[in-house]
Amino acid sequence: MPFVRLTIADPDIAVDVRSALARDLSALLESGLGKEYEHTVVHIDLVPADRWYVAGVHPGEGTGAHLEVSITAGTNTPEEKAAFISDAHELLGRRLGVLPAAVYVALYELDGRSYGYNGITQAARKNLDPAGSD
């Protein structure tokens, strides 16, 4: 049950591109990290390009992006996480076009005792359904 925050340095990204990014990121989390598509929340934050800096300057070309994903700690292997980061970067390039020299993808692993949705922690949810996915 990940929460995704994607910041894009282009306030004019079309709605269809934003929708495609939300669908694609949700699908990638399902296929790559085993997360439930129907519980994935994607928040896309569009910021003015003049607020984006790489190496202290505005990128000459390319759309700045930063992807943050909150997941439950201990639910994925290092290999799965590395593959997700690589695949997410490729997805951003495919949907946004040219990217600047530095585009970060961060997986935040949160303790299941202090992370949850709909009023239930992930630890409590796991106790209710030990075979369930994250």
UniProtKB/TrEMBL annotation:
<dbReference type="Pfam" id="PF01361">
    <property type="entry name" value="Tautomerase"/>
</dbReference>
<comment type="similarity">
    <text>Belongs to the 4-oxalocrotonate tautomerase family.</text>
</comment>
<dbReference type="InterPro" id="IPR014347">
    <property type="entry name" value="Tautomerase/MIF_sf"/>
</dbReference>
<dbReference type="GO" id="GO:0016853">
    <property type="term" value="F:isomerase activity"/>
</dbReference>
<dbReference type="InterPro" id="IPR004370">
    <property type="entry name" value="4-OT-like_dom"/>
</dbReference>
<keyword id="KW-0413">Isomerase</keyword>
<feature type="domain" description="4-oxalocrotonate tautomerase-like">
    <location>
        <begin position="67"/>
        <end position="119"/>
    </location>
</feature>
<protein>
    <recommendedName>
        <fullName>4-oxalocrotonate tautomerase-like domain-containing protein</fullName>
    </recommendedName>
</protein>
